[in-house]
Amino acid sequence: MFPKPLEKSSRTWQISYQLLLPFALILWLLPLLAVANFSIKPEADFVNGNYWGLPSSFEAFSNYGRVFFDSNMPRYLLNSLFITIPTVIGAVALSCMAGFALGIYKFKSNLPIFFIFIAGNFVPFQILMVPVRDLTISMNLYDTKTGLVLFHIAFQTGFCTLFMRNFIRALPFPLIEAARVEGISEWRIFLYVVLPLMKPALAALAVLIFTFIWNDYFWAVVLTQGPDAQPVTAGITEFNSQFRAAYHLMSAGSIVAALPPVVMFFLMQKHFIAGLTLGAVK
Amino acid sequence: MSVSPAVSSPHASLPEKGWYKRNEIAITPWLFLMPAMIFFTIYVIIPIGQSFWISFHQWDGLGEKTWIGTANYERLLGWGDQNMDRKFETSFWNNLRWLVLYLLAIPAGLFIALFLNQTVRGIRFYKSMFFFPFVISQVVVGLVFGWFYLPNDGLFDIITGWVGIDVKGGVLGNPNTATYGIIAAGLWPQTAYCMILYLTGLNAVDPEQVEAARLDGAKGHKMLWYVILPQLKPATFIAFVVTIIGALRSFDLISVMTNGGPFGSTRVLSFFMFEESLSEFGFRMGYGAAIAVVLFFLMLGFIGYFLYSMYRDEKGAH
User: Homologous superfamily of B87-317 in CATH?
Assistant: First the structure.
């Protein structure tokens, strides 16, 4: 193990390490702690210039209450949910199938197709922007959740297919051969042999895509306009212009907007990290 | 030419076996690939080509496109008797700043990973809390750092005030510092990402090699450089890929923190392109597409290298 395990280090380093850990963490998360602090302050604190000190009174309920009952925030949150969930389902479903095809079968164009999916991942969004916006408008889907969902599914399929294909590659192939010898049809092999083994990959991809899509801002701005379809990342700017310079409300709004992926991450931490670090270990 | 009935009988006993059944293994992969390929072609492959096409036109996004040849590129890059578009110049140099400074996330992530790679009580909690910033949307990160950088009232200004430094107009209000302020905000989540890559990598480092090296007297940075880092190569590769792509894609932070200002000093190509195509100054889609194409070619160098490395691994695996 590297660096040297703590148990084998000197007593002084052991103690200082234990002290250093919480200190480093607080320093690292200082920006977040500051916003959390902002969001429970009364407005008067900002008027009096008490930005970074302790709140003079505890106003979390009224601040968060106003975010939920006095703004479009709940609508934006719902929009985000209705954009994110279908995208997760769609992208995972498409890439399961594509990953199965590329991971199990040997055919000439297998690798080229696989690399097209990977390459598409790295492309700058901007080169897709004008045509995709145009296409969405011509399908009458501009400023709708469906328009965003369709694009997100398509784009995320690249990354998801890379992920799924590599996962399926690592499954024991004799299992599939055995099923073939039994005369089981190919789509049944997918459904009853491969799919059950893919559960960890499905979970990892689902949380990852959830986070990516929830946090997307660029496409939200390009493909949607108002509170009817905009997700919370884009909505927060409207929210902020509504409460200009009202830091206690802006910070409460930001925390609400950021929360769902955070909850997701803490609930499914293992899968999340397994997904993100795919390929980091050979 | 007679075929022995003993051999042909198992097939002959299945005369109902249709064309699909006979070709099942050849056809199935295409059926499974079809939906993904259709989506990907419509929304990713074709638009890339269309952007190239649009970049040779003048177009407001609504009316007819007018063919103007390479005029967009001439204006952008300053070919012929024109000067290079000033905004493009700023954006390009800012992109380079992003690229170089963003890479700091890799050593920083490695440093934190080494710091946290212990087995004390509660370390799992610490690891996930250190990773936390990556999960938060960049929009929120941008807002938070914007408040941190506020002139006079911002924590940054207060702290630098103690040592007698005063950034005029606040970090984000000063054209000399604004881009660096945004990059610093971007480094926060990116470092967290690199950290988690390295933590996973460190987990898989071969303990026997480390022990053997230790017996040979290796320790400290020598051990890190000659024994540990070579084993962390896959993690480093991915860290490079995601950091470079992330640096060139930077958009959210700039849009939220400065909206390209002050005086356009924080523009990068991705933001510049968006601004030209969809800003209140009018929809210059053709010019925007030309910028996107230039950005695409800048990235293509990196993409090509990444794909080549992956392709090599893929060939090696067979």
Answer: MetI-like (1.10.3720.10)
Asked if B291 has any chain A CB less than 8 Å from its own CB, the reply is yes
Q: What is the pLDDT of residue B39?
A: 95
Q: pLDDT tens, B244-275?
A: 999 998 999 999 999 888 888 999 999 999 98
CB B284 within 8 A of CB B298: no
- HSE-CB of B26 using CA atoms within 13 angstroms: 6
B residues 133-162 lying closer than 8 A (beta carbon) to A:
133, 135-141, 143-145, 147-148, 150, 153-155, 158
Q: Please state whether B262 falls in left (phi above 0), alpha (psi between -120 and 50) or beta.
A: beta
**pLDDT per residue as tens digits for the range A170-179:** 888 898 999 9
Q: Using the structure block, give the residue that is written with the tokens 């003993």.
A: B6
pLDDT at B69: 84
Question: What ipTM is given for this predicted complex?
Answer: 0.90
CATH number of the A71-276 domain: 1.10.3720.10
Domain boundaries, chain A: 23-68, 71-276
pTM of the model: 0.90
